[in-house]
Each structure stands twice: as C-alpha cells, then as structure tokens.
Amino acid sequence: AVLDLDVRTCLPCGPGGKGRCFGPSICCGDELGCFVGTAEALRCQEENYLPSPCQSGQKPCGSGGRCAAAGICCSPDGCEEDPACDPEAAFS
Length: 92
Prior knowledge:
This protein is mostly beta strands. It is about 0% helix and about 35% strand.
C-alpha cells in the first residue's frame, strides 16, 4: 500500500463530536479522554466501510499508535498510558 501524504483525519465521534476515531471501537479526544468499546465509539465502526485510510492524533507513540489524549497512546488495537503523550512532555 502506498502511503498517501494527505491521509484524512478519522471520523469525529463522542459528545459534541469532540473526539476522533482511533479504531473501529475507540474514540478519543483531548477534552474527553478515550472511550473504548462504548456507545461513544459506535460511529467509528463506519470507518470499516470507508475505502481510504485515516489517521487521528498527534505524534506517533508506542508500537504503531498515536497520542490520542493527555498521557494516552492509542492504536486501532487499543489504548495504553504513555508518558510521551503528556502535554508537558512536548516541552521537556
């Protein structure tokens, strides 16, 4: 698969659309934290039917994940705490 430089941002999700999908069952936002496998993330299953890849989050972290919320790194497989994703870490 050729990596397209303008990968779209994944679908919005969660309360007020303030989160973004990080996988078919993961919705995260800076103000929200992460919802995994909950009603807030149901919309994210739509990504399975869209042909183009998407990417959410800021910097890469963990093994193939991206920072999803403060101190949280998510990949489509799940989320884990990651100090690299703390907002303060950007300035240290």
